[in-house]
Amino acid sequence: MKKRIIAIMKKEILHVLRDPVSLSIIILLPVFLLFLFGYAVSSDVKHISTVLLDLDESSDSFHLSQHFFQSGYFDLVYKVSSFEELSQLIDSGKAKCGLVIPNKFSYYLLRGEKAEVQFLIDGSNPTVAQTALFSAQAVVQDFNLQLSVKMASRSGNELKFVPVDLQSRVWYNPSLESLNFNIPGLVGVILQTMSINLTAFAIVKEKERGTIETLIVTPLKPLELMLGKIIPYIILAFGISTLVLAVAVFWFHVPFNGSILLYFLLSFLFLFSCLGIGLLISTIAQNQFQAMQISSFVLLPALILSGFIFPVEAMPQVIQWVSWLLPLTHFLPILRGLILKGVGIAYLFPDVIWLFVFSAFMLLFSSLRFRKRLA
Amino acid sequence: MGIVEIQNLTKKFADLTAVDHLSLSIPEGVIFGLLGPNGSGKTTTIRILCGILPPTSGQALIMGLDSFQQAEKIRKLIGYTSQYCSLYGDLTVEENLVFYAQIYGMRSSERISEILQRFKLFQFRKRLIRELPPGKKQWTALACALLHEPRILFLDEPTSGMDPKSRQEFWDELSSLKNECTVLISTHLLDEAERCQMIAFMHLGRILAVGSPSQIKGIPKERIFSLEAPDPVSLLKEIAPLPFVQDAYLFGNTLRVILGEEDKTEELRKIAQERNASLQETEFSLEDCYVRLILQERGAL
């Protein structure tokens, strides 16, 4: 039995090696996706083009504008001397924000009175506007804090002058970088896509070539054929997901806080659920084109409904039930929990149980079907 | 009892009956040809015998074992090449052979080089299957099927796509196999049937006749003549409607005319002379027999 499985495995490896185009796509596509997500699809808004109107031209106003433009959120693109020029630049879209420092800014500050600063935001893109608003508030708050500390230390009486400071802190992803949120999800998506497609294709190819018939006539048993075909692709899918994770951690500096061992163990569990789906597809499809169509039937909803892009909680109840059925929906919280929060298995238990049940059921069902189709 | 015994075998796909109450006995050590046009049920029959398909009713016994219920016991006893050259195109000749050897649990690489030599594949062993000429592909498929020394070899239309020379060589090789194993081969080429020890004519899932080629040729009781004429087509139009002519058809450039049991040879000779055609009494070929059997089956005769 072992020898026959190894014979199939060897043959599969030869197939993979003889097809360098597919092999390079298999390896490069996930890495390409990773860089795409890492650089292009970042939903963080930084470097917002900003125009400055400084009517005060004092050292205090200079400090405030410096605070703005060194924060990384705002880029100084124009410095103007009238309000008309500023509004023109925002109207024409050359700048998204405008910072107006009135002429008595330092005067009020010195007198210990409230100094007002005007901040104008182009609201046509709400995402940018919202981020700009929050960032501006944060920058000003930070500025206030430093200023009051300075004033307090000057007067020697600290406590009285420290203004109320809103302690807002973000957990797990302190810089709120979407990259940290997206990449663990991407690892799951890649693992899913590769394992489902590779298993389905590997078996369907055998049908397409007509070689499956010849194999049926040999003493090879369905289980041996199944294992021999699946094992090389499990290893391949696993290797590539590890590669993606490594790039994420070492290139994009996504923090990995959990246990690596647990990560591999649970990825393995997830792989089995995907293999079950891939196997099922292979029993339905007659050729690779059909296999691809059927697999997109699973992969596309998973991409949208699993919480990879949109939060499941925000979906209508009926859609939530559908997304609950998808293994990826259960694997993503595991991945994010492990990578970002570093939680242990106790916190992941419901999802792990679900994956376990799903994999067991799916593998049993599809291997029985596979057997029946072959025999 | 034959090495293959088929009893009342029927296979239905939805509303199509591919094999229709077929019974057949194949004795050990012969080359048995299954003849018939495409769609006559040859492939389905072979697939049932190999245990790929379950029969709808009836059964097939391979060396006394049920082809489907006991398929696992039969696997090692049979070799099979399917209609489509079922090898891995992206693997070399040798890799294909090694793969099948491992599947059959064989270790010896001697057997592989022996079979490579025998089928003149040795210099091709490092070539990818998809780069081989079609003839060599079939040789490799045959080599893979024979690797484990099966008792029965099932070949489904192995010579389709081969050039005449390769076909000749292929049949020479098959003839030399008869001491090693029983061969069941399907073909739609009647000239190949002449090289089988036994043949069965199939039509619409049924067997029309079984026997050696000479037995089959002896079935018709009528007399057949061959006419060579300058204008065979117009001669055919003239002869076919005559009451004593049972059947007339073109065969290449000659006209074949079948007369009924009454002796009307003289009438035919007269017409031939008028038309400058040379008339010769001849023997039924397998092709003639097949045409007649089908016509009989349809109730036209």
Polypeptide structure, described:
The complex is a heterodimer of chains A (375) and B (301). Chain A has 375 residues and is of the alpha/beta class. Chain A has 15 helices and four strands. Chain A has a four-stranded mixed β-sheet, with helices on both faces. In chain A, helix 8 packs parallel to helix 11 and helix 11 runs antiparallel to helix 14 (327-341). In chain B, helix 3 packs parallel to helix 5. With 301 residues, chain B is of the alpha/beta class. Chain B has a six-stranded mixed β-sheet, with helices on both faces. In chain B, strands 2-1-4-5 form a four-stranded antiparallel β-sheet. The mean pLDDT of chain B is 87.
Descriptive labels:
heterodimer, A: 375 residues, alpha/beta, abc type-2 transporter like fold, 2 domains, four-stranded mixed β-sheet, 15 helices, elongated, B: 301 residues, Rossmann fold, Alpha-Beta Plaits, six-stranded mixed β-sheet, four-stranded antiparallel β-sheet, 14 strands, globular
**Percent helix range of chain A:** over 70%
Count of runs of 4 or more consecutive helical residues of chain A: 15
**Order of the strands making up the biggest sheet of chain B:** 6-7-8-3-9-10
Q: How many E strands of chain B?
A: 14
Provide the gyration radius of chain A in Å: 29 Å
Count of the separate structural domains of chain A:
2
Helix content of chain B: 25-40%
Low-confidence stretches of chain A: 158-172
* Residue windows where pLDDT falls under 50 for at least 5 positions of chain B: none
Secondary-structure element pattern of chain A, one letter each? HHEHEHEHEHHHHHHHHHH
| Overall outline of chain A | elongated
The biggest beta sheet of chain B is recorded as: 6 strands, mixed
Taking the alpha carbons of the first and last residues of chain A, their distance comes to 18 Å
Strands side by side in the biggest sheet of chain A: 2-1-3-4
Radius of gyration of chain B: 23 Å
Task: Label the overall shape of chain B.
Answer: globular
